[in-house]
Specification:
Transcription Regulator spoIIAA, five-stranded mixed beta sheet, 5 strands
């Protein structure tokens, strides 16, 4: 796993963007990535790829801040938006599921986390 943080995005199809994160990102890294990518959104679905990243540097409050940063652009993304999160291990999947349950409880949206890339891409329709 890379020591530094890498961030890159690419379109998987007309409505799905892939956001690849490597290393040990903090909430500040992710919020900056969101704010530099989402304002010109031409996509509806987001596929976050953390398969070569660790969430070990993330503080509890940063999950909420990151979700809020992404949510501010949700209306522009259109209806029926989905967010898929590919993670390196089961512990990070459980972490994302727990924090998403907390942060999404008031404003639900479709979100799925897994270690299985194909499962997530199928769910997104890619």
């Amino acid at each position: 796993m890379a020591a530094s943080v890498g961030l890159k995005s690419s379109m998987l199809n007309d409505i799905t963007i892939q956001m690849v994160v490597t290393g040990y990102p903090t909430g500040a890294h992710l919020i900056s990535f969101i704010n530099s990518t989402f304002p010109t959104a031409t996509f509806r679905h987001v596929f976050w790829d953390f398969s070569d990243a660790s969430l070990a540097m993330m503080e509890v409050s940063e999950f909420e801040s990151t979700e809020a940063a992404a949510r501010q652009y949700s209306e522009a993304r259109g209806p029926d938006l989905k967010t898929a999160v590919l993670l390196a291990n089961s512990a990070d999947v459980l972490l994302i599921r727990a924090y998403s349950a907390m942060t999404l409880k008031l404003k639900p949206m479709a979100m799925k986390a897994s270690t299985d890339r194909r499962e997530l891409l199928d769910w997104l329709g890619v």
